[in-house]
Amino acid sequence: MNIFRVPFRMERLAPNSMAGEFDAGYLANLTATVKSITDAGSHAVLDPHNYGRYNGEIISTTSDFQTFWKNVAGKFVSNELVIFDTSQCPNPLVASVGLLLTKSWTDNEYHDMDQDLVLKLNQAAIDGIRGAGAKSQYIFVEGNSYTGAWTWTKVNDNLKALTDPQDKIVYEMHQYLDSDGSGTSETCVSTTIGKERVTDATQWLKDNKKVGVIGEFAGGVNDNCKTAITGMLDYMGDNSEVWLGALWWAAGPWWSDYIFSMEPSSGPAYTGMLSTLEPYLE
């Protein structure tokens, strides 16, 4: 495993205002978490898990969002193993296990938002990150409708207009395999649903000369889901020119008995799914 997602709350990092000063204690904990990951040679994805909201309200001020990301990037500008995720969902400092299929985030899971605003917020985050002098790091951008791969071409086509002077944008999509794609059930729709739900997004990436990553995926510990997951990962591997990898959701000591927990040594996915995923690990 060579990539770990580090979700945090924007309000805890910047408690007074989105463009305001950072809380020193929270920043220290976040920095220490990132350092422990990157010192081991892995990538750390900085993921404000806010769903496009700040203090419960949809973020509408792109200038403040740009400043927030400029401030964040400034703290990690020299760490090439940091990845910035410009999207947003709430889980403070809990790491998600990552799997990369090949050698190589803005806010988490925008939803129910104006599509043009989602485009502008992503671009503002990119501009803020690069404006801080962070030139070498990848930037993961997310879309509306919980950034689902299965709805990407119908909802997020306009995000192809995003620009980055460093040409290091990675389109992050999420894909769960239950009936509504929410990742709240251990039941997968079919043994082929994994591949089916990323096929259109794969073609979109190819058509637009973009690259992507599945930033969240999971399935229940059962034969149907195992087959569906390996089918999806095999298909992504066959299309590795546009897919850089996939990250299992989730891991961390606070997840207790969460159905998809990859937390050693007793998480349900750790005990029941890891052996299925190991052939895809680098």
Automatic annotation (TrEMBL):
<keyword id="KW-0964">Secreted</keyword>
<comment type="function">
    <text>Has endoglucanase activity on substrates containing beta-1,4 glycosidic bonds, like in carboxymethylcellulose (CMC), hydroxyethylcellulose (HEC) and beta-glucan. Involved in the degradation of complex natural cellulosic substrates.</text>
</comment>
<keyword id="KW-0378">Hydrolase</keyword>
<comment type="similarity">
    <text>Belongs to the glycosyl hydrolase 5 (cellulase A) family.</text>
</comment>
<dbReference type="InterPro" id="IPR017853">
    <property type="entry name" value="GH"/>
</dbReference>
<dbReference type="InterPro" id="IPR001547">
    <property type="entry name" value="Glyco_hydro_5"/>
</dbReference>
<keyword id="KW-0732">Signal</keyword>
<keyword id="KW-0136">Cellulose degradation</keyword>
<dbReference type="GO" id="GO:0005576">
    <property type="term" value="C:extracellular region"/>
</dbReference>
<keyword id="KW-0119">Carbohydrate metabolism</keyword>
<keyword id="KW-0325">Glycoprotein</keyword>
<protein>
    <recommendedName>
        <fullName>cellulase</fullName>
        <ecNumber>3.2.1.4</ecNumber>
    </recommendedName>
</protein>
<keyword id="KW-0326">Glycosidase</keyword>
<keyword id="KW-0624">Polysaccharide degradation</keyword>
<dbReference type="GO" id="GO:0008810">
    <property type="term" value="F:cellulase activity"/>
</dbReference>
<dbReference type="Pfam" id="PF00150">
    <property type="entry name" value="Cellulase"/>
</dbReference>
<dbReference type="GO" id="GO:0030245">
    <property type="term" value="P:cellulose catabolic process"/>
</dbReference>
<feature type="domain" description="Glycoside hydrolase family 5">
    <location>
        <begin position="1"/>
        <end position="251"/>
    </location>
</feature>
